[in-house]
Each structure stands twice: as C-alpha cells, then as structure tokens.
Amino acid sequence: MKKVALISDGWKRNIIYAWADGIMIKINEYAEEVTLHHYNCYGNWCEYS
Predict the structure, then answer these.
(1) Cα(4)–Cα(40) distance, rounded to whole angstroms?
(2) What per-residue confidence (pLDDT) applies to 47?
(3) Residue spans per domain, the chain
(4) Distance (Å, rounded) from C-alpha 1 to C-alpha 19?
(5) SS3 of 42, please?
(6) Which residue of 1, 5, 41, 42 lies most exposed, with the fewest beta carbons within 10 A?
(7) Is residue 34 a contact partner of residue 1, using CB atoms and an 8 Å limit?
(8) Is the CA virtual torsion 2, 21, 23, 12 positive or negative?
(9) Which residues, 6+ apart, have CB-to-CB distance to 35 below 8 Å?
(10) pLDDT of res. 41
C-alpha cells in the first residue's frame, strides 16, 4: 500500500477540496492500493472565504 500526504492550511477551502478530489480521481485510476492522508492546519481559517 502506498500513502500520499496532502498538507495544507485553511486558504481558500474550495481550492483545497478540489485538490483532494483531483488527487483521489488520479489515485482511483491505479490498480495499486493508495491512501490519501489530508492534514489541514487551519493557518488562516475564515468561514467567509
């Protein structure tokens, strides 16, 4: 099994969700078992962005 880490902060959360979604789409194209571990530090979190 392979592991992929996505480390991000709270910057423009829709973009970060799109990154994770895109990574998962590519992971699902491979025959190997790959897991995505997403770590979000909320460095500049704003609920209105």
Answers:
(1) 14
(2) 66
(3) 2-40
(4) 21
(5) coil
(6) 1
(7) yes
(8) negative
(9) 1, 2, 3, 4
(10) 77
